Amino acid sequence: MRFSRGPWLALALAFATFFSACTRDPQILKKRHFDKGQTYFQQGKYPEAAIEFQNAIQNDPKFADAHYQLAQTYLKQADWPRAFQELSRTVALTPENLKAQIDLANLFLAAGRLSDARDRANVVLKSDPQNAAAQSILSSADASQGDLTKGLTEAQQAVQMDPTRSGSLLNLAIIQEKSKNFAAAEQSYLKAVSLDDKSMPARLALGSFYQRQKRFADAEAQFRAAIQLDPTNPYPRATLAALYLSEGQKDNAEKTLQEAKAALKDNPNAYRMLADYYLGQKDWDKALAEMNSLNAAHPKDPVVSRMYAELLMQQGKMDQASKVVDGALQNSPSDVGSLILRSQILMREGKASDAVHVMEQVVKNSPDNAAAHYHLGLAYAATQNLGQAEAEWRQASKLQPNMAEPLRALATLGARRNDEALLEETGGRLMILQPASPEGYIIHAQGLYLKRDLPGAEADLKRAIAAAPENPAGYARLGDLRFSQKKLDEAEQMYNEALKRNPSDLDATTGLVNIALQKKDAPKAARLLEEQIAKSPSSSLYVLLGQVEMRNQDSAKAEAAFQKATELDQNNINAFLMLASTQISRGSVDQAMDAYHRAIQSNPRDVRVYVALGSLLETRNQWQEAEDLYRKALAIQPEYALAANNLSYLMLEHGGDLSVALSLAQIGRKGMPDSPNSADTLGWAFYKQGVYGSAIDLFQEAIKENAQNPTYHYHLGLAYQKANNFEMAKKQLEYTLQISPNFTQADEIRKILAEPAPQKN
């Protein structure tokens, strides 16, 4: 008997539809992902757990438990920025989650944002007045601001609130140690361990205390105990390696990290530690080998790819770095870190406009990423778009106020513009952000100096010295201030103080040389440099010596010094340029050309040498070879103004494409807006195009900046002639011959002047 399929099929379809709807239900999906994430988390598979919690949040963006667990996952991976982000979302959704409030307060505390840490702790104490963790945060914040007495009292209160909480005892121990009560601190550390002998943080804290007390055997024992308590956690192993390194036991440190990599081969924080160690030791060969191995073993780890690419870039292996970044972007096309590296490589290749395009897209996709805005600013700066660069650096600083790099970039821009307000602003913020660094005080002092507030600048520089008395920078800058005040003896004293801290300090050495030159004692300046070179030879010192020998009018010694500078550092382009200039001045043009060629061979991406060599070839009337060099420079850096300007002028003089020449002249003028040469070239391009009014305006600008250049007057005279202003044309052409009787086009000018003036109608 044959049954009909109709009812059975309908029933099956109904069940399928029901189950399909269930699997698409966001509430069911979010729980499934959340539960799976919890399982991964308990297994220590944190990257996998993070993906599941993210999927849960994607199904329900207001799923507070998923945000909190994702934050815990990031904390386990030491990904502090993302942990902070998820904790902030958690407390916004569920302010009553006191654990999240405490975690967030601890992150604020670690970042030095003490006021924010206190605010979070007080939120917790308002709901739970006996919360020992919150009370400990208050004590830590006060102790961090130097109020050890108040911090100690609050720490003791936290212990009284919960005598069984080891974290409160550890906090008390830290403050007792800061108060120099080492015996009491040790007892508190030991009690914290005894309360929970399975606590890995307590063991590490006790071990670190012993390390600070120079009790290395006791410290080693505690760190090894911490490893046994949590064998899957890489941090105790890193701490043990750091202990060995502090004792000079590099072999044991390396062995410990090798064991960590083998034991925790799937933990990124573990398998990266050995590479970090080699990088810290500046053992570049081992670091390269290790990074190459890691990149092969973990091709989808973007951190490894970025570390490897950065190392390759640092070593000048740009092609290899580019391939590594390409591989990283194939695995994760939107990875911001890899895209930032791509932009850096493009800028190294002179393709700043392409770098701008890459970073603009990154910022569009990740508008809240401070690092992306900072690097977009760098790309804009490389294209001379300083207004946009400033805007991006300000946005980066707004998004991440504790990020120092945008402030430094703004300070550099302020120094370039002599913008005292910008220097004061950035210096002031850096002073607050990094009070133990001399950098902010020095930048702020520079702003005050430009305002001629010399007492204020001096006070800032003294604060720089007080903040970092072993750093030479403050002394050297104060020496510069004294030099500007003509207080040469005091300046010399400050420069010598800087050299005590760093015998190779170039700024201090330069200062002493300048004092000798100010006293018209160039031989002494040379002796100072020779003494410094004997202690610590460097390419920069030889360049300085060459400049001094030029002042001594000893070109042979100057040339020898510049030659030595190029030998010590083949990447010191200034050394090559000065060497060639010295050789040209004594008529050794072939040797100068050889110096330029050596510089190009060592630094094929540095456009300055191509332009310098091109300019030299122009003087020998080898304009075709000069054109070729300018084109090579522009292939590397399409917006390099000087190359564009020079190539444009040659094309205008030798029958090149006028529209291309005009475009190049405009690039030159945009990049060198204050240059009379760029004004003349663009004016000449307009003249050749028959746009005489614009040409006249530009020639007049050029003459305003350099009134004794006969070419500018000659060009202006021709433009007036074409514009039918014969009186002004005659005036300019006659003046050309007056300042340069043997001018190249003198015969042509005399011929024009000999012609009868046109009759007025």
Describe this structure in words.
Helix 14 runs antiparallel to helix 15. 79% of the residues lie in helices and 0% in strands. The protein is elongated, with a radius of gyration of 34 Å. It has a domain at 473-520. With 761 residues, the protein is mainly α.
Q: Main beta sheet, described?
A: none
Q: Which structural class matches the secondary elements? A: mainly alpha
Helix count, per DSSP?
Answer: 45
Strand content of the residues, in percent? under 5%
Distance between the termini: 120 Å
> How many runs of DSSP E, i.e. beta strands?
0
- Mean pLDDT, rounded to whole units? 89
Multimeric status of the protein: single chain
Shape: elongated
Indicate the percent of residues in helices. over 70%
Low-confidence stretches: 1-8, 13-22
Draw up the topology in text.
Elements: H1 6-24, H2 26-42, H3 46-59, H4 64-76, H5 80-93, H6 98-110, H7 114-127, H8 132-144, H9 148-161, H10 166-178, H11 182-195, H12 200-212, H13 216-229, H14 234-246, H15 250-263, H16 268-271, H17 273-280, H18 284-297, H19 302-314, H20 318-331, H21 336-348, H22 352-365, H23 370-382, H24 386-399, H25 404-417, H26 420-433, H27 439-450, H28 454-467, H29 472-484, H30 488-501, H31 506-518, H32 522-535, H33 539-551, H34 555-568, H35 573-585, H36 589-602, H37 607-619, H38 623-636, H39 641-653, H40 658-671, H41 676-689, H42 692-705, H43 710-722, H44 726-739, H45 746-754
Helix pairs in contact: 2-3, 3-4, 4-5, 5-6, 6-7, 6-8, 7-8, 8-9, 8-10, 9-10, 10-11, 11-12, 12-13, 13-14, 14-15, 17-18, 18-19, 19-20, 19-21, 20-21, 21-22, 21-23, 22-23, 23-24, 24-25, 25-26, 26-27, 27-28, 28-29, 29-30, 29-31, 30-31, 31-32, 31-33, 32-33, 33-34, 34-35, 35-36, 36-37, 37-38, ...
